[in-house]
What does this fold into?
Amino acid sequence: MQLAQQFEQVLCSQPFSHLGVVKNQQKSVLRVWRPNVSKITIEWENAALANVTVTSKNGLFETPLPKEYQGEVYRVIAEGLNDDKGYIDPYQFSEQAYHAVHYIDSKPSNLYEQAGAQLLTLTSSQGDAIKGVRFCVFAPNASTVSLIGDFNQWDGRTHPMEKTSMGYWVLFVPELAEGERYKYHIKDAHGHDLPHKADPLGFSAEQYPSHASKIYNHNNYEWNDSAWMEKRKGNKYNSPMSIYEVHLGSWKRPGIETDARYLTYKALADDLISYVSDMGYTHVELLPISEFPFDGSWGYQPVGMFAPTSRFGNPDEFKYFVDKAHQAGIGVIIDWVPAHFPEDGHGLARFDGSCVYEYEDPRKGWHPDWNSCIYDFGKDTVRQFLVANALFWLDKFHVDGLRVDAVASMLYLDYSRNDGEWIPNVDGGNENYEAISLLKWMNEEVYKHFPDAMTIAEESTSFPKVSRPVFDGGLGFGFKWNMGWMHDSLHYIAKDPAYRNYHHGDITFSMVYAFDENFVLPISHDEVVHGKGSMLHKMPGDEWQQAANLRCYAGFMYGHPGKKLNFMGNELAQAREWNHDSSLDWHLLDYEKHKGIQALYKALNHLYTSTPALYEQDHEPGGFAWLDHNNADQSVVSFVRMSKDAKQKVYVVSNFTPVPRQNFRIGVDDACTLTLALNTDDGAYWGSGYDVASTVNTQTIPWNERTHSAEITLPPLATVFYVANVD
It folds into this structure.
C-alpha cells in the first residue's frame, strides 16, 4: 500500500519514520502529511533560509532538505487553511514526544506528570521558545491512534500518533494552548474504528454530548492555604473529626431567576463552607467529583478520574473551593472510586478494543450490582493508574483525605456473586489477592508522600486490620467506616420503644470491637435513599417522638467512640428521602421543629470539638468505660468518656424510652461536681424542656462498681452529657 494511502486510511502507527526530516536513499528529505491540501509552503524559523513551495495530489508532500536546513524548526503554510501563519509541523519533534515514556513507570506520580496532555515549552536551535502540548496515551493493542480536536476539525487523518515499545502513543503538537478540546481516534488490533475516546489522564472534560477532554495547566493556580497545610500535620486520631457528607449537585440549587442547574464551585466555596464552619463540622466530604457522565450515579460511575467534574466549574475553581475550605479551617475529603467504572463509549471500557483497564473474564471483570467494569488489579499499568490517581488529588488539589468506596467489593472475588459466577484465587479462596496488594500499595504511597493526609475505607465485612499499617499486616488505611455500628444502632432505634428491651444488644454490641479499627461512625447518603426513608422517618412514634428519637440517637452517636460523619439533610430532620435531582428542603427551617434539630447538631458539633474527653481517645480502650450496659429493662445505656490525661470525664446517658426517670443513679469515679453540658431534650432543640439539673454533686455511695455516684434526671427519649473536670 502506498504511504499516502496508509495515512489517508489512518493505518500508520509509526509516523515519525515517514514524516518530518527522514533519510531517503542517503539523502535527507522533508515530508509533510496534510489531507485535503494540494499545495504547501515550508517556512523556516531561521530567516536566512529560503522558503520552499511543494505541490501534491494526495496530501503527502516531500522536498529535498539541504544539509544547512537540518535541525532548523520549520512551519507549514497550507493553501486553503484559514490560518495564514500555518503551523509548526509536529513530526519534527520525535525526540521530545518520546521523552514522555522514559520515566513514566519509575514512580506512580510520573504518570500524571508525563502522560495525558502536558503543556511544554521547547527551545529551538535558534533559542526560540516553542510552546505546545505533548500527548501520551496508553493503548497497547491498538493498530493506530490519532489525535483529534477542534484544531484539526476532529479529522483522524491529520495527527497520527507514534506507538512506542511500552504501548504508549505519543505526539508533541506546537502552539496548542490551554482550553483546547481533544480526544483520541483509535483503531483496534483489527483496524476497526472505536468510539472516540476521552483521555484517561485528561485534567479537564466537557459534559454531554461531546465528553471531550480539555488541555489544562495545573501550574496556574496560586494557593493560599499554607497555614492549614501546616496545621493538618497534627495527630488525626486524637483530634476531633466531624464530617459533613455532601452531594454538591443537590445541597442547594440556584434560584429560579437563573438558568443554571447547579451552584458553581465558587458559589459553594462561599455558601457551603460558611455553613459547614458555622455548624461546627471539621471536615466536608464530597461524593465523587471525578468526571462522570450520568447524574443518577451521584459520581460513583466515574470516567474522567483525573478531572474534577465540570458540572460546577473548571479545575481551578475546584482548587478555589478547597482553598477557601482550608482558609476557614475545614478539611476536604473526596470520595474515591477505584473499584469499578462504567461502559460509556468515550471511557476506559475496551479502551483500544481490548481490556486495557478491566479484567477480561466477566467473572472478575464485570460488577453485577452496578453493571460496570472492574479494574484489573493485577495489571501493572492499571495499578500505577489507580495509585497515581490517588496521589494526584492529594498533590494537585490539596485534598485532605480519600474515602475509598466499595472496598469490600474489591477484597472478595465472590462479592455479590453466586456459586459458579466467580473464579477462586490460586489457593482456592475468595480473597482477591491482587486488589489487596493494590490497596496496600496505594496506602503506602499516600502516607509516604502525604503523611498528613488520610485514607478512609468503606468496608462492610470483618476483614482484619483494615486500618492498621501494612508493616503490621494491615491494609494500611487510616480509618474505616463502622458499618456494623451503623446497621445495629439504626436497627435498634427503628424499634418501638416498648420492644427495645428485647434488642438491647444491638445498641451495645459495637463496643465489643470498637477499638479493633480506627472507626468513623457513618450516617451516610446510603441510609436515606432507595426506600430506606429519611433519618426522621426511620424513627417510630408520633411527630414529637420521631423528633425526640432522632435527637436522642444523635446524642448517643456523638458520645460513642469514633469520628463522626453525617450526610447533608440529617441536621434538618428532612422528612423525605434524599433526591439527587433537587435541593435539600431548606424551607423546613421556617418551622421550629427543624430549626431546633439543626440547632442540636450544631451544639453537638461544638460540644464534641471543644471537649477533649469526647475525641482524644476515640481509638483507645482507655478513653471509654461502661457505667451500665445491661439495663435492658429500662432501655438506658450509660458510659463515661475520658481525656488522655484523665482530668476530664464526660458521663453520657441515653434514655431510649419516652418515660422520664427521676433520681436515676449513675456511678462516678471521683468526688466532684457534674456540670450539664448538653441535653437533647432541651426546649431549644424542640424538646420537651423537662427539668434537668444544671449541676449535680456526687455522693459517696458506690454504684456501677464505682466509689461515688450521682442522682440525675433522665428526660424522655433523650441523651444527656455531664462533664466532670478533676484536678
